[in-house]
UniProtKB/TrEMBL annotation:
<dbReference type="InterPro" id="IPR020583">
    <property type="entry name" value="Inositol_monoP_metal-BS"/>
</dbReference>
<protein>
    <recommendedName>
        <fullName>3'(2'),5-bisphosphonucleoside 3'(2')-phosphohydrolase</fullName>
    </recommendedName>
</protein>
<dbReference type="InterPro" id="IPR000760">
    <property type="entry name" value="Inositol_monophosphatase-like"/>
</dbReference>
<dbReference type="InterPro" id="IPR050725">
    <property type="entry name" value="CysQ/Inositol_MonoPase"/>
</dbReference>
<dbReference type="Pfam" id="PF00459">
    <property type="entry name" value="Inositol_P"/>
</dbReference>
<keyword id="KW-0460">Magnesium</keyword>
<keyword id="KW-0479">Metal-binding</keyword>
């Protein structure tokens, strides 16, 4: 059996390919689009991931956005936390800024994970490799929602003179920090564990700061998977951002 890092990367990558194939087939047939395409993508990616986990990691529990929550996960030592398609809007609009999330939680901590970026033909995983962490840019670049940055992020940006960089899904935004395209991602608008588990696992493996916006630890595989806020940034920027966040 492949190690969990390699398995997570392969699973996320293969699900991404399923999503690309599904979108191409649907667009070519002209039978669906928009929300219907997004729903189909969610379903096909979930089916693919569930089948592989059942076959290759049958003793592990699963928490997925697209499946009923089985409380047995709370008594297991290994739980896969999955978002089969993070960024359904971007996916349905034939954009590149969406992702597939696969993370492994073991005995209280995230131990492996991968974020596939099929639109870029890339997958980031806890196995690396990662480039060295440099100093934040001047001005600091903040990844924000395509539609509207939150009031919190707008206030932070104003206080530190940051540049706002709009992009799609949460996983794509965290990946942009890992890839050095932006310096930080601050989120306060509500998320669930599957929205951040894999990106946080990868970001932490890359040496980035990951926490809630009050600086407290991110905890996973809880009874209630609601995990509404997130900060991911380079370690040189963390104290500055946490001080500003605490003052708002």
């Amino acid at each position: 059996m492949p190690d969990d890092h390699s398995f997570a990367a392969d699973l996320a990558t293969s699900a991404g390919q399923v999503l690309l194939n599904t979108r191409s087939e649907v667009v070519a047939s002209g039978t669906a689009g928009g929300k219907a395409l997004a729903k189909m993508g969610d379903a096909t990616a979930q089916e693919h991931i569930a089948a592989r986990l059942a076959a290759e990691r049958p003793d592990d529990a699963v928490l997925s956005e697209e499946a009923a929550d089985d409380p047995v996960r709370l008594s297991r030592e290994r739980v896969w936390i999955i978002d089969p398609l993070d960024g359904t809007r971007e996916y349905s609009e034939d954009r590149h800024d969406w992702a597939v999330h696969v993370a492994l939680w073991e005995c209280g901590a995230l131990t492996a994970g991968a974020v596939a970026l099929p639109g870029l033909n890339a997958t980031l995983s806890t196995a690396g490799p990662f480039s060295g962490l440099g100093a934040p840019a001047e001005p600091v670049r903040l990844a924000v929602s395509r539609s509207r940055a939150s009031d919190l992020v707008l206030t932070v940006a104003e206080r530190i003179g940051a540049e706002l960089v709009p992009m799609g899904s949460a996983g794509y935004k965290v990946s942009a920090v890992v890839r050095g395209e932006v310096d930080a991602y601050i989120h306060s608008g509500g998320q669930y564990e599957w929205d951040s588990a894999a990106p946080v696992a990868v970001a932490a493996a890359a040496g980035l700061h990951t926490s809630r916006i009050d600086g407290s630890s991110l905890e996973y595989n809880r009874k209630d998977p609601y995990l509404p806020d997130l900060l991911v940034c380079g370690p040189r920027l963390a104290d500055k951002l946490l001080r500003v966040l605490a003052s708002i």
